Amino acid sequence: MMLLLISNISLHLSNSTFTQSKSTISTLPFEEIIRLDFMRNPADQYNPFAVGFDVNAPGEASFVWGEIVDDVTESATGVFYHLNVVNAWNRAMLVELPIYDVQILVFADQTGQFFATNAGYMPANAEQGMPDMIMFGAGSDSMSNFGTITEVVYHEYTHAITAQFYDEESQEDEFRAIHEGLADYFAGTILNSPDVGIGFYIYDPLTPLRSMDNDLHYVDDWEGEAHVDGTILSAALWEIREEIGAEITDDLVYFARYGQPLTFGAVYDEMLFLDDDNDDLEDGTPNFDVINAAFANHGIVELFNSVDEISSNASQPRSLVLESVYPNPFNATTRLSFSLQKSERVQVVLVNILGAEVAKIWDGNKSAGSHALTFTADHVSSGTYFLNVRTAHDQATQKIVLLK
Fold first, then answer.
1. Residue 283 to residues 277, 286, 314, 326: CA-CA distances in angstroms?
2. CB within 8 Å of 64: residues ≥ 6 apart
């Protein structure tokens, strides 16, 4: 698995100007992050900057804005500066892991002719010859230019990162809501605020576009719109952050994506799996009560008193259950058993601790009922791995140890 971090930013402006800048950032004092959407003249908050600012972007870039800054400079500077901020934040999360840098095209629309009232990440399309791209719209009479809204830049960059964790992306509503919920969470945690999209509304700039401080409930408040539905998940994550702090929660949420969760419940499972400190989920995890309560508060899971109750009291049976992996630890050969509620395609893969696929054990259809597969690790080195079994709607992961 290759984790995307932007190192070379090609920034295209729709007024035909073009800038290509390079950033070589390793660290950043995040307390010095500049919120461009707050840099307005208090006496005239609806107009562009009325005073000059010296803005030192991280790394190599330096910008000096004059007394009156046009929309092109405002948006381009915002996009470049905050892409560097979120890039540096992601590097800090991966300080002990290898990072693979790639180039991504960033388009800041100034005219509204191409991408007016939205922002978005679009994965590469080889057939059309299109690279990975993030686009920021020009806004409208009521919406600010998207490139000037701090959380929007962080949100769209997070989409690009999250996409790299998945071998295949689903079009199911819940998966799309996961994408949006995670993008909101990381935008908020970088700024230490549950509110996302401050400055979005021109005539009400202090009202956020969305907030993770909410009591929305799954499935009662499900609307079928990914951004709105994603706030159900992000609210649960923010509650956990409020209880155990950003450092632990950010780690749990960030690396839960290695399990490629396709449902809110699968995000919950992955976070518990990561929180486990002794390879034995049956005796709980250090933060089980907090994680379970937050997800239960938003209707994603039931409120359990212990891990043991999860399997015996779940209101809806899972469509996929990984029943056993034996022996574990194993020497060369192990056997895994799983069951399905219905006939569907199943993928079984072995991944290493960095999330890279080491071996594909099965990829094909299986009927409803119980199944067993034997895996022989002839060409795999000794070490700790994760066995991932997934369908289009569910997945299960088990840590295994190979001893040779």
1. 10, 10, 18, 20
2. 52, 53, 54, 55
Check if the beta carbon of residue 116 is closer than 8 Å to that of residue 90: no
The Cα–Cα gap between 39 and 73 comes to: 14
The pLDDT of residue 8 is 39
Single-letter amino acid, residue 306: S
The pLDDT score that the predictor gives to residue 283 is 76
Coil vs helix vs strand at 355? coil
Domain holding 148, by residue range, is 4-165
Query: Can you tell me the distance from the alpha carbon of 357 to that of 339, in angstroms, rounded to the nearest whole number?
Result: 23
User: Does one domain contain both 8 and 138?
Assistant: yes
The pair of three-digit structure tokens given for residue 109, joined into one six-digit string: 């629309």
104: β partners: 9
Find the CATH number of the domain harbouring 109.
3.10.170
Total domains in the fold of the chain: 3
pLDDT at 175 over 70: yes
For 92-114, how does the pLDDT look when each residue is reduced to its tens digit (9 = 90+)? 887 766 555 666 777 777 666 66
Tokens of 81: 């500066």
Strands 333-340 and 320-326: what pairing?
Answer: antiparallel
- Is the domain of 285 the same as that of 326? no
Q: Is the pLDDT of residue 186 over 50?
A: yes
Which conformational region is residue 284 in: left (phi greater than 0), alpha (psi within -120 to 50 degrees), or beta? left
- Judge whether 98 lies within some domain: yes
Q: Give the residue carrying structure tokens 């190979």.
A: 402
Specify whether 309 is located in the same domain as 336: no
Q: Please, what is the average pLDDT of the chain?
A: 76
User: Which 3 state secondary structure label does DSSP give 217?
Assistant: coil
Query: Is the distance from CB of 320 to CB of 338 less than 8 angstroms?
Result: yes
Residue 232, token pair as written in the block? 């159900």
Looking at 313, 340, 356, which one is the last position of a domain?
313
216 & 75 share domain: no
**pLDDT tens-place string over residues 121-154:** 888 777 877 777 888 888 888 888 888 888 998 9
Closest CA relative to residue 335, chosen from 363, 372, 364: 372
